[in-house]
Amino acid sequence: MEEDTGKSLHVGGATGRIQGASHSLVDYNRAGIPLIEIVTKPVEGIGARTPQVARAVVGEIREIVRGLGVSEARMERGQLRCDANLSLRRSPDVPFGTRSETKNVNSLRSVERAFTYEIRRQAALLTDGGTVVQETRHFHEDNGSTTSGRIKEEAEDYRYFPEPDLVPVAPPAEWVQKLRAALPERPSERRRRLQSEWGFSDKDMASAVGAGAVDLIEATVAAGTTSDTARKWWLGELARRANENGLDLDAQGVTPAQIAELQSLVDSGRLNDKLARQVLEGVLAGEGSPTEVVQARGLEVVSDTGALSAAVDEAIAANPDVADKIRAGKVAAAGALVGAVMKATKGSADAKTVRDLILEKLGTV
Length: 365
What we know:
By secondary structure, the protein is α+β, with helices and mostly antiparallel strands.
C-alpha cells in the first residue's frame, strides 16, 4: 500500500517521453491518492499461452477489486494498471532469463498485446545470440510494440530502503476472521452461479469471460432484457466494434441500460435488427438514448399497410416474372419482392406486413 505521487508530463517531444522533450511539468492532482500494488509470483510453464493467461490474471484481479468495492478498476481511466514482467527460458531445467518490465499497460487487450510483442522480441534477440537487458519498457498502443525506457541492471537501482515511520502491523486473528466472513461472493463462484441462472454452455460463458462481458451482461439483464439477447449484443455487434477500434468492451460509451432499451424497441416491433444497428451507431456517436435516436433519425419500422402499399405495387410491377411465379402458387418466391421493398424503404418496412400485402395483392391468400 502506498500513496500516489506527482505525475511528470514531458512537453515538446514527438512521443510524450522525456527523450526529445523541451521541458517537463509536474501534475500533483493525484498526489496522496491511496494505491495498492499487487505483486504476483512467477507463473511458469504456460509457453505460447502466456499473453492469454496474463490477460485472464489481470481480468480476475479486476473482478476481485470490483467485487470488494475497492475501485471501479476502469483501466482506461488509470484506476488499474499492469506492469507486465516477462523472462524466457528454453526449458524448466534452466534458470529464468533476464526479465523486462513493460510499465503501466492500461487495458486487458493491451496486456495481451504487450506480452505477445515481448515474447517475440526476446526470442528473436536470444536466437540471434543477443542478450536481454533488465529494463523498464514503454508500450505503444498504436502499433502494439514496446521500446526501452530505463535500464535497471542491478536490484540496487530500485533504491530500496527501510521506512522509519512505518511499524509492523499485526491485526488480531479474530478481526481477520470477521473480515473474511464478510467478504462478498468470489468472482469464480459468481460466474458459476450466473452461468447456471443464464443457462449458458461452458463455451458461451468462456466467451463472455474472455471478452470481459460478464458484468455487462449481468447489468443488461438487470435492466430488463434476457441473458441471450444481452449476450448477443455484447459478444456480437459491440465486440466487433471494440475489436475494430482497439477498445475494451466496456469502454465504448454505451451502457447496459441503453442496450436493454434498444432491445425493448426491437421486442415491441418498433425496430428490426437492421434499424437497431443504425440506432446503436447513433448512441455510440453520442446522439442520446436509443429512443431519442429513433425519434431524431426517423428510424422506426413501418407497418402501416397504406404507407407500404405503393412500395409493394412498385416491386410487383418491376418484377413481373417473380409475380407470375407467386400467382402460380410458388409463394416462396415472395422473398424476392420482400427484399425489393425492404431496399426501397431502406430497411424500415415490417417484413411480415410486406409479405402479407404481396400475397394479398397477387391473390394467393
